[in-house]
Design brief:
- It is a single chain.
- The chain is mainly α.
- The protein has a single domain, classed as Amino acid/polyamine transporter I (Up-down Bundle), CATH 1.20.1740.
- It is built from 19 helices and no strands.
- It starts with a helix and ends in a 6-residue tail after the last helix.
- About 55% of the residues are buried.
Length: about 450
């Protein structure tokens, strides 16, 4: 149903622009007939795989040890609690992606809800910047994993990988989405293998379940709360899905379902992995390990060397996948901002042959490679989670403002009660405060 969907995009963009009268002309021009448009190639299963590929990433591989150090036997509960907090913002994103299924989603939401074009531009650039910096850091860090198998300098590995990924992103959304899905299956596959192996060896599970179902002592509640805050960051990534909405079949229906499915599957995976981990690895070892999942996999298989190689290969897949998805996302944000009149017009052009925004994709690729090769990215990369949380807060605030100002919910798309964006806004700001307090050493325990 491509024609109907394109009409829906035009209507959504017009609705967004109506809150900012000076932008209406630019939005109507952006949806003009006869121009090449992004291709609708992503159905619900492919979009869910795409979402899982960006959400299930490095977070669980690193953070499970930190969560276990605080939550102890209640580590699975911490991941479950974090998923419920993330669900608040995910629900807001689900409604807004159905209201406005367009590229540069967060910018469009802020523009429609708060009516401040400059703020919408800032939010859009924050989203793109987070993706670009994150990709540069991933490329540089991932090259180290490749060096375990190939003798080559880091800069050369990063350059070749970046060029290959950029070519896939420019080639087409189908190629990008399927590549991301395949790499994501590798990431999720390792977690499924770990869960399966842990359930087969069922002897320790009973003890772990007994400890998990015990009522925590008052002194443990603070540790569990701190663990929930840490586990929250393992769920960040689902929000990137909204920026490919113009390439999704029937986005009004598909986007909310895909966001919900991605979050539910991720939560089940994390809960199960955490349960297997506390059952098979002593908490002291798990919390002290710099590679907790490698330790768990080795404990379950009894083969430390092969386990290390397996996890390294999955880490390489996660790096490649992360760069690809962030590149696609950032290019779509620049494309969407240009179509709304915030950025130069060439960034909003779609190539007829590939149905991708080649100018925007090329610019993002150049920025990623430049940062990766010539800039020190770790400090900048540390800021990406803060940027994401601020964006979460702005998106929730925008949805609350829409509802409070009487903008109709409509009957054709998914909606949430007004308290959801309010709660999502408060939680997001709380996590910003927590992260900055942790960064500057203000948190204890």
């Amino acid at each position: 149903m491509p024609e109907g969907n394109d009409d829906g995009i035009a209507q959504a963009m017009s609705e967004a622009a109506s809150t900012v009268s000076e932008a209406a002309g630019a939005v109507r021009e952006a949806t003009g007939a006869g121009e090449p448009r992004l291709a609708r190639r992503m159905n619900l299963p492919l979009l869910v795989l795409y979402g899982l590929s960006v959400t299930v990433g490095a977070g669980i591989y690193v953070l499970i040890g930190e969560v276990a150090a605080r939550a102890g036997p209640y580590t699975p509960v911490a991941f479950l609690g974090a998923s419920l907090l993330v669900a608040l913002s995910a629900a807001s994103y689900a409604e807004l992606s159905a209201r406005f299924p367009i590229s540069a989603g967060e910018a469009a939401y802020v523009r429609a809800g708060l009516g401040v074009p400059t703020l919408a531009l800032v939010v859009g650039l924050m989203v793109a910047t987070a993706g670009i910096v994150s990709s540069a850091a991933l490329l540089r860090g991932g090259a180290g994993y490749v060096q375990e198998f190939v003798t080559a300098p880091v800069w050369l590995i990063a350059l070749l990988a970046g060029i290959a990924i950029s070519a896939i992103a420019a080639w087409g959304i189908s190629q990008s989405a399927w590549t991301a899905a395949i790499l994501g299956i590798c990431e999720v596959g390792l977690l499924v293998v770990i869960i399966s192996l842990g359930l087969i060896d069922s002897a320790p599970l009973g003890t772990a379940l007994e400890r998990l179902t015990d009522t925590p002592a008052p002194g443990q509640l603070a540790g569990i709360s701190g663990a929930i805050l840490i586990a929250f960051f393992a769920f960040i990534g689902f929000e990137d899905m909204v920026n490919v909405a113009e390439e999704v079949e029937d986005p009004v229906r598909t986007m909310p379902l895909a966001i919900a499915a991605t979050l539910i599957i991720t939560a089940l995976l994390y809960f199960s992995v955490a349960f297997v981990a506390i059952a098979h690895v002593p908490l002291a070892e798990l919390s002290a390990s710099s590679a907790p999942l490698t330790l768990l996999f080795a404990r379950l298989t009894g083969a430390a060397s092969s386990s290390g190689h397996a996890v390294t290969l999955v880490a390489i897949a996660a790096v490649l996948n992360g760069v690809l998805v962030q590149l696609v996302m950032s290019s779509r944000v620049l494309y969407g901002l240009a179509r709304m009149g915030h950025l130069p017009e060439p960034l909003g052009r779609v190539a007829a042959a590939t149905r991708t925004p080649l100018f925007a994709t090329g610019l993002v690729a150049i920025l990623i490679l430049t940062l990766c090769l010539f800039a020190e990215t770790p400090a900048l990369a540390d800021l990406t989670s803060s940027l994401t949380l601020v964006i979460f807060a702005m998106v929730n605030l925008a949805l609350w403002r829409m509802k409070a100002s009487g903008q109709p919910d409509g009957e054709k798309y998914f909606t949430v009660p007004m308290w959801v964006p309010i709660a999502g806004f408060v939680v997001s700001l709380g996590f910003v405060a927590y992260e900055w307090a942790s960064r500057f050493g203000l948190m204890t325990g």
